[in-house]
Write a structure and sequence with these properties.
Radius of gyration: 19 Å
Pfam families: Ank_2
Mean pLDDT: 91
Distance between the termini: 62 Å
Keywords: ANK repeat
Number of helices: 12
Order of helices and strands: HHHHHHHHHHHH
CATH architecture of the largest domain: Alpha Horseshoe
InterPro entries: Ankyrin_rpt, Ankyrin_rpt-contain_sf
Helix content: 55-70%
Shape: elongated
Number of domains: 2
Amino acid sequence: MLRSAVFTAARSKDTEKVKKGVWEDNVDPSGGEIKAGCEEFVHVHPKDPQETLLHIAAFNGDADMVEWLDAHSADCEERNSSRFTAFHIALQHGCIPVLNYFFKVYDPKSDDYTSIYATPSSKPVLFIALDSAEPEVIWMILNNGLASTQDIGNAWAWVSSSEGEQSLLKKLGTQRDDILGEIRNLLMTYVLARTDHLYL
């Protein structure tokens, strides 16, 4: 099936084959791998039937491919089975070039793009950023106003707990103590800034 071949190419980072499938063979870049009504023609079903080409490109950290798909009718608001958009996938894996693309093209402060950035209520955007264990990624969320005062306070409490510390240390390399300290200091800066603002 041509559509599945394009998705396989995307997972293998074969961007030229993906572009050919979309541009020349008219494979719809929006939606999951298996379109409704085509289930019986697919022999190997994907782990996540709602994962789109944009999700895959974001996971691969390929900002150029994300931009190309976005320009060719892919839908940045589509969500996978975890209710994550491609933006959330890039955030979770610390793919900074992809995040920069989203912030540049889709203003996070605009109500028009809430559907791209909003997460399921069970996991705030800031906590997805913490999954990356990348201080710059966490800063991007804070700097773009995508974390509430409560989210920041909860994140600070979590990284200061033994559970949060151990979770982050498992993801960090040889400079893990330095990076953990940087994450804590970053969150504390915003906690204090929000607290000062409340009393102004």
